[in-house]
Design goal:
about 550 residues, mainly beta, 5-stranded antiparallel sheet, 5-stranded mixed sheet, about 15% helix, rod-shaped
């Protein structure tokens, strides 16, 4: 359809040119009527808006009407028929103007847009017809294109884009100046009237280093009418720069310092402190951890933050409903406290463990960040030590040196350090501490030392003495424990054994004498008995 429409325009213009070169006034009028396309062309330069149509084509000046003559008085009526011709069969064949009219009716004029040059819109100091010039202030220029449509556009929307010219010479900061403009009812002429228009309003940033002059800005408009036909037009406005560099000046070029891009620092979230519901945490305990987080940034607010906590699952059981916490926002230098609850498993060895935090958040511009932190928790195993009674003689003699032994057993689940024992008693002087050393869980170790015996310190030099054994040991945290036990022994004089050896022991000597006597009697009786037996045998033989 569009190609047919263009072909008809070309044909009409050819007829018009022919008429201009000498056809009759009626033919000229017909040609002028044929090329009436109502196409408006806008020329907007420095605020001067002019419009002409194809009816004002220059060739019209060749017609008498261009000199003020009345064209209608010389042209034929629009419905005048052409002369009839008689054919050989006697029938007349006439070609009327109706044929031309039917051809003209099939031609569809394209949708056209135009600048509303009669009204003053917001951002304009005056209408286009009065010489509107875009406003230049504060390093930018505001350009307003109020556009009217002769028909309805699809969706009552058009697409507008600015062409700022050569990026090297133009005073504008080049960006993507393109947007959809919808038909809207706006107030004009100091809010005294209302107009339905497509208002393309752009604010264009200006370069810091710009040259004075007048620069064209072209608005390219694309749209579609309700039938789907494309509508494309361009409108030009001129921006005047008067606060820049004079192009005719001979002064030395001013070298602007290169602006350095300052680094952007991401807001940091850190673990400021933490504390637990118990000062000493042991296996089997349930403990609550309060962890304080700090937004270290002095400018940026942290938003949409999530914190997830993880711990050694073999040692800790999470009692909280979730291992994650959500924080909507955290202002600069603001603190927040998050809480998690755990049970320390019974088999957890003594030592220091980590509660690891994984944090994800965003800044005010939507940039996302990730960081991590730790809260340390110390578990202490209860120490279970058992010591046997001190192995020491029940009687000792002054000036003797005897051995003292002690056995220690670690019945707990953690290692015990610096196990030792010290002996103290009147009359006993150990040569040193009984040092056993470090003991692993479930082990037993024996330690010993030599003890010198002396007399008692009181008025009684010999006799019973009672002493103490003090046991010392430390757990994995360095905490020291003590236990104490007692023992007794008898200190004897070094001469007590010699007196017992020199004193004659006559207690059992009479038993010896009686045994000898009885022995002798038994022997004598035996001899007598034997002799009597022999005598009887002899007497018997003699008879």
């Amino acid at each position: 359809m569009k190609r047919k429409h263009i072909a008809r325009k070309i044909f009409a213009m050819a007829i018009a040119a022919t008429m201009c070169m000498g056809l009759s006034p009626a033919g000229y009028a017909l040609a002028a009527q044929s090329i009436n396309t109502n196409i408006n062309v806008y020329n907007i330069e420095a605020g001067d808006v002019s419009c002409y149509s194809m009816q004002d084509h220059p060739c019209n000046s060749m017609h008498p009407s261009a000199n003020g003559q009345d064209l209608t008085s010389t042209q034929e009526p629009a419905n005048t028929q052409a002369p009839a011709t008689t054919q050989a069969d006697g029938k007349s064949d006439s070609k009327t103007q109706t044929d031309d009219k039917s051809d003209t009716d099939t031609q569809t004029d394209a949708m056209t847009l135009k600048i509303d040059d009669a009204n003053q819109y917001d951002g304009m100091e005056k209408p286009y017809k009065d010489g509107y010039v875009p406003i230049n202030a504060n390093g930018s220029v505001r350009i307003v294109f109020p556009i009217l449509s002769e028909g309805e556009l699809r969706g009552n929307t058009l697409r507008a884009a600015l062409d700022l010219g050569d990026a090297q010479t133009a005073p504008f900061v080049f960006k993507n100046y393109e947007k959809d403009i919808r038909l809207q009812t706006v107030k004009v002429n100091a809010n005294t009237q209302e107009v339905s228009a497509y208002v393309a309003d752009f604010t264009v940033e200006l370069k810091g280093k710009r040259t004075n002059g007048s620069y064209p800005v072209i608005l390219k408009v694309t749209a579609k009418d309700t039938k789907g036909n494309a509508v494309e037009q361009e409108f030009t406005s001129y921006v005047t720069i008067a606060d820049g560099i004079d192009p005719d000046a001979t002064t030395e070029a001013v070298v602007e310092p290169v602006a350095e891009d300052l680094p952007t620092f991401a807001p940091k979230i850190m673990v400021k402190s933490y504390n637990y519901s118990k000062s000493e945490i042991q296996p089997g305990d349930e403990v609550k951890a309060d962890i304080v987080l700090l937004n270290t940034s002095k400018e940026n607010t942290v938003k949409n933050m999530t914190i997830a906590v993880t711990a050694d699952t073999e040692s800790f059981t999470l009692l909280s409903q979730s291992d994650s916490v959500y924080i909507e926002k955290l202002a600069p230098q603001e603190e927040t406290t998050i809480t998690f609850s755990y049970r320390i498993n019974a088999k957890t060895a003594a030592g220091q463990y980590d509660l690891e935090l994984a944090m994800d958040y965003a800044d005010g511009d939507g940039n996302t960040y990730s960081t991590s932190g730790k809260a340390k928790i110390t578990v202490q195993q209860s120490s279970e030590m058992q010591f046997d009674d001190l192995s020491f003689p029940s009687e000792v003699v002054v000036a003797d040196v005897v051995e003292a032994k002690v056995q220690a057993m670690n019945l707990g689940r953690s290692k015990i350090y610096n196990v030792r024992a010290e002996i103290a008693a009147d009359g006993l002087k150990p040569q040193g501490t009984i040092f056993i050393g470090d003991m692993e869980a479930g082990t037993a170790v024996t330690g010993s030392t030599q003890v010198s015996v002396s007399s008692l310190s009181g008025s009684k030099l010999y006799g019973n003495t009672e002493g103490t054994v003090t046991y010392y040991y430390e757990d994995e945290s360095g905490k020291e424990y003590t236990e104490e036990a007692t023992f007794t022994t008898t200190i004897k004089s070094p001469f007590s054994d010699q007196k017992e050896e020199t004193t004659p022991d006559n207690t059992n000597q009479w038993w010896v004498i009686m045994a000898v006597i009885l022995g002798c009697i038994a022997v004598a009786a035996g001899v007598i008995i034997i002799r009597k037996i022999r005598l009887k045998k002899q007497d018997a033989e003699d008879e």
